[in-house]
């Protein structure tokens, strides 16, 4: 959509990115001449907070006079397993413009649980403050009762985590998965005796590769891999997993290193680091180093046995996913 006085907000998920303003004809009534790049989005986030999708948008608009802009918005959301998201709300809001700043805040109910997701689409009309501003062509906002995720310019960050029994400890402490998810949308697929691509040991869960390929709905923007303690380096198929994640629309994988309690774990860590050097898609999350001074492990030195140790893993996962989200926003 492109017409004078309307800014269609169309940024990538979690983006904090500059927004170019096209120069207007100075002869047009009420026009404001703004050089390219003069308008910028300083805050552009969607968070998942206690069953609500919370949208925060702050724009700096140099040269735009004080007044009231009109923001037309729509919000969609639902379960991560759904292929389409339902419209949760829409409306038109009068938003003050003061000192070249516009702040829009909205929240809609999406349902309890970090397995929920969704996002917003807005159009900002500055005509009422005497500003004639156009933006580069942007996708139109959805106009139906449902939409696909890719139609939503601003979405809550989604990630999925795949683990063997070491990561499955997050299920053993109340609140650990919520701690790892934070204000993001998360799916935790954590299975005892899982292997990366090879046949499992009893109780025979599907491999991480199969889980990625078969997961319903959205795998997310980011995937977390914490698998390898049941594997051998000779069959540790990093390339197959990377290909599967890319095919599911994942933009970055956070790959946890193994605690090097035996030689094979060190070999797998070397494979992870080597793959990351060849492929920027992979972000190495060095759990081996981060947990070096940490207590609370079982005698095998791998499995977590205390609440504090489990929370340390949850915090590590959260920090690594947040880092990946920031890098995606900056790219």
Question: What is the count of structural domains?
Answer: 2
| Helical content (DSSP H or I, runs of 4+) | 10-25%
Q: Can you name the CATH architecture of the largest domain?
A: 3-Layer(aba) Sandwich
End-to-end gap: 25 Å
Secondary structure: number of strands: 14
Quaternary assembly: single chain
| CA-atom Rg in angstroms | 23 Å
Low-confidence stretches: 1-5, 10-38, 134-138
CATH topology of the largest domain: Rossmann fold
Keywords, please?
single chain; alpha/beta; Rossmann fold; 6 helices; 14 strands; elongated
Give a written overview of the molecule.
With 331 residues, this protein is of the alpha/beta class. It folds into 2 domains: 150 residues, no CATH class; 173 residues, Rossmann fold. It is 20% helix and 30% strand. The chain contains 6 helices and 14 strands. Strands 1, 2, 3, 4, 5, 6, 7, 8 and 9 form a 9-stranded antiparallel beta sheet that branches. A 5-stranded parallel beta sheet has the order 11-10-12-13-14, with helices on both faces. Helix 2 runs parallel beside helix 3. The longest helix has 24 residues. It is elongated. It starts with 5 loop residues before the first strand and ends with a helix.
Secondary structure topology:
Blueprint: E1 6-8, E2 40-49, E3 52-60, E4 67-79, E5 85-98, E6 101-109, E7 116-125, E8 146-147, E9 154-155, E10 158-163, H1 176-181, E11 185-190, H2 208-214, E12 222-226, H3 238-247, E13 252-256, H4 263-278, E14 282-285, H5 287-290, H6 307-330
Parallel strand pairs: 10-11, 10-12, 12-13, 13-14
Antiparallel strand pairs: 1-7, 2-3, 3-6, 4-5, 4-7, 5-6, 5-8, 7-9
Helix pairs in contact: 2-3
């Amino acid at each position: 959509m492109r017409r004078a006085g309307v800014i269609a907000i169309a940024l990538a998920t979690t983006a904090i990115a500059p927004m170019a303003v096209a120069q207007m004809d100075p002869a047009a009534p009420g026009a404001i001449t703004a050089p390219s790049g003069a308008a910028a989005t300083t805050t552009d986030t969607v968070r998942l907070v206690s069953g609500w999708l919370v949208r925060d948008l702050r724009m700096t608009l140099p040269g735009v006079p004080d007044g009231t802009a009109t923001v037309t918005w729509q919000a969609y959301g639902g379960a991560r397993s759904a292929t389409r998201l339902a419209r949760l709300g829409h409306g038109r809001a009068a938003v003050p413009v003061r000192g070249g700043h516009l702040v829009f805040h909205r929240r809609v109910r999406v349902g309890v649980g970090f397995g929920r997701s969704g996002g917003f689409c807005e159009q900002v009309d500055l005509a009422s403050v005497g500003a004639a501003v156009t933006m580069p062509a942007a996708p139109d906002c959805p106009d139906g009762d449902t939409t696909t995720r890719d139609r939503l310019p601003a979405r809550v960050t989604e990630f999925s985590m795949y683990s063997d029994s070491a990561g499955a400890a997050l299920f053993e402490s109340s609140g650990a998965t919520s701690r790892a998810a934070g204000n993001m949308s998360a799916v935790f697929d954590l299975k005892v005796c899982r292997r990366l691509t090879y046949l499992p040991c009893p109780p025979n869960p599907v491999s991480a590769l199969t889980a990625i390929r078969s997961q319903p709905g959205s795998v997310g923007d980011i995937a977390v891999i914490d698998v390898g303690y049941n594997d051998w380096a000779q069959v540790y198929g990093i390339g197959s997993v990377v290909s599967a994640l890319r095919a599911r629309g994942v933009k970055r994988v956070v790959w946890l290193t193994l605690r090097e309690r035996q030689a094979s774990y060190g070999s797998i860590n070397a494979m992870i680091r080597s793959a990351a050097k060849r492929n920027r898609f992979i972000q190495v999350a060095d759990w081996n180093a981060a947990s070096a001074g940490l207590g609370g492990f079982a005698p095998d030195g791998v499995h977590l046995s205390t609440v504090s140790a489990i929370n340390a893993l949850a915090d590590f996962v959260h920090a690594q996913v947040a880092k990946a989200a920031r890098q995606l926003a900056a790219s």
